[in-house]
Specification:
Elements (H helix, E strand, L loop, with lengths): L1 H22 L1 E2 L1 E7 L11 E8 L18 E8 L8 E3 L6 E2 L8 E2 L1 E10 L13 E3 L2 E5 L3 E10 L11 E7 L1 H7 L4 E7 L12 E5 L9 H6 L1 H7 L8 E5 L12 E2 L3 E2 H18 L7 E6 L1 H12 L7 E4 L30 E4 L5 E4 H11 L11 H9 L21 H6 L5 H15 L4 E6 L7 H11 L10 E5 L10 H23 L1
Helix pairs in contact: 10-11
Length: 517
């Protein structure tokens, strides 16, 4: 009996010790310096980011999108008097906002790859802007408390472009946006000209909008794509000018629309950028052969521009658009639900799923990432997607920020703000204006959506399709396709859209010839 008691005590003690070791956490501290060659350009004011990635194959500072498969934990705080000649002590004594549920005092055991970024840029909305400073990636292992020396020894370089005889760059000072903001604002774009381009010839033109936040520099990926460029520089490619619009604005992506917070980006596009590009390169200003396309954010913008400016474009090709109506803002009905984070059953609302239906990330987790990125400590100026939606759809608030649709911590929805969002609800807009709008949209609407969209965007598109398909006077001829089990943007490609536009141009040419005869 005596030996059984001793054995039992030993096993209990062993279990407790194992549990303690498995759950033991450790503190992190660092001594941050600025390398001598960067001290002169280091600004006093900015936001300091600590990135701890569990993925050894990435630059941690680039992992601003929450990804549970390859976690990167972010800590951030504002600093108003950084002295580049002194050592900055980093530890848990300062107040940090974080994407984690633990602090710098209680890191879980394991390997992490740390990178520190000093966001001092005030021209762009996102943290990895040219001119910001960062450290070299460094591996650290937590099986005890860790203190490291880290130097801000690198600077994010200006954007570069692949050189190609068919590539052109546009950087236009916008008088409309400059007047609205009271400071110089430029609009940027890149152009891929057709093979055998002739400046004395008139061409159809395609305006492409990227997925969220895609910059005009994305033309680089296309030019580097050997398969695409082999086709594009062959006689098989269509003679269409490609314009890649820029997804950078004051609060993230401006969505190429007028708004109370971003300013008149839609007006500037229609009245300044498009006329400028077409006078320089197109040989005509006819809207009959002007088209617009994109996927995800680009899907929403292309459809939105076709709806709001129906005479300016002769066809939109919208793939997997962001929520086009807001009774289905992903899984939230912003007009009737009370909370963005939990549903009526008390469950966390997911925003990301696999095509099998498995939830990957909650909306609350997604928003907390944006709260960390924003210098306000909220998603309102995060430069992220939720913040950009809010800046576009919401009225102006205080301190130069948009009014929040929902509380950044509790998720409680503000019904005054949600009412304002109706202005950008495509179903409401089309219904209120159908008598005038409907005839102008004939033959111009193509939408594709995967019915297992990874961000639940199929629900809003379904609601919009149900509405459009019941319209009378006129009956809509919009082509809206849903593909079972397909995910977000899975059927989108530049080549596919260009061939769709070519087909549309051929139809227009045939109709014109018939009318002439």
């Amino acid at each position: 009996m005596k030996y059984k008691i001793i054995l039992t005590v030993f096993l209990v003690q062993t279990s407790v010790l194992q549990a303690f070791c498995q759950n033991q956490n450790f503190s992190f501290s660092a001594n941050l310096t600025v390398s001598e060659e960067l001290r002169e350009i280091c600004q006093e004011n900015g936001r300091l980011f600590l990135f701890f990635s569990e993925n050894p194959n990435v630059e941690p500072r680039t992992q601003i999108w929450p990804n549970p498969r390859n976690k990167t934990h972010i800590f951030a705080r504002n600093i108003s008097s950084l002295d580049s000649k002194k050592v900055l002590r980093i530890d848990n004594s300062e107040k940090w906002i974080t994407t984690t549920d633990w602090t710098l005092e209680d890191f879980p055991e394991g390997d992490y790859y740390i990178q520190i970024l000093w966001d001092q840029d005030i021209k762009e909305s996102r943290v990895n802007a040219p001119g910001n400073l960062f450290s070299t990636k460094q591996k650290i292992h937590f099986d005890k408390s860790v203190e490291v020396d880290i130097s801000l020894n690198q600077k994010i370089s200006p954007r570069k472009f692949e050189k190609h005889h068919l590539v052109r760059l546009v950087d236009l000072n916008s008088e409309i946006l400059t007047e609205w903001w009271g400071k110089p604002v430029s609009m940027k774009a890149s152009i891929l000209l057709p093979n055998n381009y002739n400046e004395n010839k008139a061409y159809p033109i395609r305006y492409n909008i990227a997925g969220y936040g895609g910059r005009y520099t994305r033309i680089n990926r296309l030019v580097r794509n050997e398969e695409f460029m082999k086709w594009w520089t062959s006689d098989e490619s269509p003679e269409i000018i490609n314009v890649f619009l820029d997804g950078e604005g004051p609060f993230g992506d401006p969505y190429q629309m007028d708004s109370e917070n971003n300013g008149p980006y839609g007006s500037a596009l229609i009245n300044e950028l498009i006329p400028h590009i077409e006078s320089e390169y197109r040989g005509t200003s006819s809207s009959k052969t002007r088209f617009i396309d994109g996927c995800s954010t680009g899907g929403w913008v292309s459809l939105g521009l076709q709806l709001f400016y129906p005479d300016e474009f002769n066809g939109c090709f919208s793939y997997s658009p962001d929520a086009v109506e807001f009774t289905n803002y992903s899984l939230v009905d912003i007009y009737n639900d009370e909370n963005m984070f939990t549903n009526e059953y008390g469950y966390l609302i997911p925003i990301w799923r696999s095509t099998k239906g498995d939830p990957i990330l909650s909306l609350k987790q997604f928003v907390q990432h944006e709260n960390v990125l924003g210098s306000s400590g909220t998603y309102l100026n995060s430069g992220g997607q939720i913040g950009s939606h809010n800046a576009l759809y919401s009225p102006k608030g205080g301190n130069g920020l948009p009014m929040p649709l929902f509380d950044p911590l509790t998720g409680e929805i503000d019904t005054i703000v949600s009412e304002h969002w109706k202005k950008y609800d495509f179903k409401i807009y089309a219904e209120e204006n159908w008598e005038e709008l409907g005839p102008k949209l004939q033959g111009k609407i193509f939408i594709w959506m995967g019915d297992m969209d990874n961000f639940y965007l199929n629900l809003a598109t379904r609601a919009f399709a149900d509405f459009i398909n019941t319209r009378k006077n006129p009956t809509s001829d919009a082509e809206i396709i849903f593909t079972a089990t397909e995910g977000h943007c899975s059927q989108y490609s530049h080549k596919k859209v260009l061939l769709q536009i070519q087909k549309r141009v051929e139809e227009i040419t045939t109709i014109k010839a018939q009318l002439t005869n």
